[in-house]
Amino acid sequence: MIDLGLSKLAIIGVVALIVIGPEKLPKVARMAGTLYGRAQRYLHDIKSEVSREIELDELRSLQKEVQETAQSIKENVEHSLAESRDDVEAAWRGHDSSPGVTATMDDLERKARDFRRKKLVRNSAVPGWYKKRHGGKTHIMSGAARVRKFRPAVQSKSSFF
């Protein structure tokens, strides 16, 4: 960087005054100040843009690392789930008491579907008089009605004094 002291600036000012003249010196000084300010703003913009690009590059690399880590975690979880499923299926096959019968997923889904259907039929087939006699629910009560029904009674503090 150029080392400009007070004495050097004074010499530059005197030379400029002699060369340019006293009439044009203020105009030239104003123009030089304006150009110097523009140059400073331009350099500041370039520095901020470079720093923004560096930060953006760092963020991209961080994003790439996070994605790689997430992918590896996903693969580990999928691998452990596959191992667990294989272990369960092996245990299920080894647990069968009859060697000729094996349950498939379709059989299990069909049994679950039949169970849900039979349970729905069982629950909806109970007559109203039976529910009333044995304390079953006969109608749906809203949340506000339940709160009012089960809220403890508030004792009033009315005084005649």
TrEMBL record:
Annotated compartments: Cell membrane; Membrane
Source taxon at top rank: Bacteria
Keyword annotations: Cell inner membrane, Cell membrane, Membrane, Protein transport, Translocation, Transmembrane, Transmembrane helix, Transport
One GO location term (cellular component): TAT protein transport complex
Entry membrane topology: Single-pass membrane protein
Region described as Disordered: spans on this chain: 84-103
Molecular function per GO: protein transmembrane transporter activity
Biased composition range(s): Basic and acidic residues: 84-96
InterPro entries in alphabetical order: TatA/B/E, TatB
One of the GO BP terms on file: protein transport by the Tat complex
Major subcellular site: membrane
Matches recorded under Pfam families: TatA_B_E
Family according to the record: Belongs to the TatB family.
Function: Part of the twin-arginine translocation (Tat) system that transports large folded proteins containing a characteristic twin-arginine motif in their signal peptide across membranes. Together with TatC, TatB is part of a receptor directly interacting with Tat signal peptides. TatB may form an oligomeric binding site that transiently accommodates folded Tat precursor proteins before their translocation.
Subunit and partners: The Tat system comprises two distinct complexes: a TatABC complex, containing multiple copies of TatA, TatB and TatC subunits, and a separate TatA complex, containing only TatA subunits. Substrates initially bind to the TatABC complex, which probably triggers association of the separate TatA complex to form the active translocon.
Matches recorded under HAMAP family: TatB (MF_00237)
Annotated PANTHER family: SEC-INDEPENDENT PROTEIN TRANSLOCASE PROTEIN TATA, CHLOROPLASTIC
Protein name per Swiss-Prot or TrEMBL: Sec-independent protein translocase protein TatB
Native source organism of the sequence: Massilia polaris
